[in-house]
Amino acid sequence: MEILRHAVVLVHLVGFAVLFGAWxxxxxxxxxxxxxxxxxxxxxxxxGIALAAxxxxxxxxxxxxxxxxxVILLVIGALLGIGTARQRKNGSVAPALFxxxxxxxxxxxxxxxxxx
Length: 116
Ligand code: HEM
Fold this sequence. Notes:
It contains four helices and no strands.
């Protein structure tokens, strides 16, 4: 069970890497939302929700932290959705939307690592 949980953590980290990596590429490039960002978010979300259940561990989960991460993830999803739709219409995404996605993704990773 423990090894399976570690495998799911690995998938969760891959989702984070895909979302944040795709965002960094765009931050130094055209500053547009891409499908890869949404894919990374979905991978991180599915694996994160699976990890939010207490299986394969012998310690208590921090549900306040997990709730905070879930709310932030929902905001990232909403921003990506709104931004992608506007980008389709106007050809560009508002800087506030673009930077918020990167900052919030970074905040969620920081919460995961720093809030014990
Ligand atoms: C974009 C959104 C997210 C990012 C960037 C992110 C990032 C991370 C990172 C970097 C870790 C590894 C931390 C470590 O092992 O020290 C982690 C672990 C974890 N994440 Fe997330 N996460 C996100 C969303 C979520 C969501 C929505 C949930 C569930 C509600 C969640 C639940 C967890 C859990 C339970 C762990 C710990 C795994 C363990 O040690 O058993 N994550 N996350």
